[in-house]
Design brief:
mainly beta; six-stranded antiparallel sheet; five-stranded antiparallel sheet; about 5% helix
Length: about 130
């Protein structure tokens, strides 16, 4: 596979709405052992908090500003998101995110193993009140 095989324009409309409420546009992953998406959250929006049953995620913020809350048995933290900031969501981590500022928060997410379906994300109590 060449780099041109995986480049594409993002569609206007999302392919799906994630269980956390963010807009998801499917991307072609260069790794067969992972799936890749572009997640978009409109300004002022906050997702539902979720945790995953079997997958881990790697995030790279590609636009906008926001915050990512993560909680696991070792504690919790809030990470400021802006273009170029990366983060991981290890298995067993509860997380929630929100868009701040005037532009949509945009994140490219790689999921390992590939996303098995919406049953993977379980809604749980979060840090902030969801607004999506």
């Amino acid at each position: 596979m060449t780099n041109t095989d995986i480049l594409a324009n993002l569609p206007e409309a999302p392919d799906v709405i994630a269980p956390d409420g963010s807009e998801i546009r499917l991307l072609q992953s260069p790794d067969e052992g992972a799936s890749m998406v572009h997640a978009l959250l409109h300004p002022g929006s906050t997702t539902y908090a979720v945790h995953h049953i079997t997958v881990e995620e790697a995030w790279v913020c590609v636009g906008g500003q926001g915050e990512l809350w993560r909680k696991n048995p070792n504690g919790e933290s809030v990470l400021k998101l802006s273009s170029g900031v990366s983060s991981e969501i290890p298995l067993g981590t509860t997380f929630q995110f929100r868009a701040m500022g005037d532009a949509p928060l945009q994140v490219v997410i790689t999921t390992t193993p590939p996303w098995p379906g919406d049953h993977e994300a379980v809604r749980v109590e979060g840090k902030w009140k969801p607004s999506v």
